[in-house]
Amino acid sequence: MRIASLVPSATECLFALGLGPGVVGVTHECDHPPEAADRPHLTRTVVPGGQSSADIDRAVRERTERGEALYELDAALLAGLRPDLVVTQAVCEVCAVSFDDVRAVAARIPSTPEVHSMDPTTLGEVLDSVRALGEAADATAAATRLLEDAAERLDRVRDAVEGAPRPGVACLEWLDPVFAGGHWVPQMVELAGGEDVLGMAGERSVVVEWARVEAARPDVVVAMPCGYGTERSVRETLDHRGALARVAARSVVAVDASSYFSRPGPRLVDGVELLGHLLHPDRVPAPPPGRFATVDLGAAALAGS
Known about the structure:
By secondary structure, this protein is an alpha/beta fold. The chain has 12 helices and 14 strands. The N and C termini lie far apart (39 Å).
């Protein structure tokens, strides 16, 4: 089966299911596993790079309010790849090519590909979407194995933190303006032995004022700006050290959001394990290096795994 993936999380799922050899095209943002980046790129962003968080947010808002797309699809390349299956999403207009555009383009491709949309908003739906993708791509057995492994790992974290005090956690999905993480993030915090003090499970991420973050009195602030790795997350955190210092949390941690929180795929399980260690380091083992950094707001120094 020839598969075109128009969502980074779908690309991760396809490779995790052992379907990498059949993936013939991906997005410009698909970087995991590394070999995915070598596939032909079917999309490009129309939002210029190198901007501040505030400028990116402004550009995204202006385009979406005008009904304009944030990504462009190379329809000719997609047709030339002759896919049997095109995987996309419709849950977030900021995250991928418009679902309606994909469906319209697919209808004109001679190979008449099936269009499969992955639209989870909760952690349970993320796992269900892996199963559904496995069925659509004739990889049901591989999906079952992947999900069994995910369930075992989540159970280990849940069991490890059982009975421990549950610290309050503020998950910041963007810092200028401040977005409180929603969708699957509050559930990840709960599984990791914490209490999300801002987000609502299954609901969209929402803009909040810094005053609300302060009023929530979180014990831990997790900076997880959407689409950024640890290094960029640290820089964004330090750019807002004054506001974060007023929150007065006992710790502020910047994480690799792109890999373990932003994308609704298999690596959300790694994200739960990461959070479990951050909240209960005596109960949950540390993750591999590079996945987070604890930020010292006063000294502008950082340390972490």
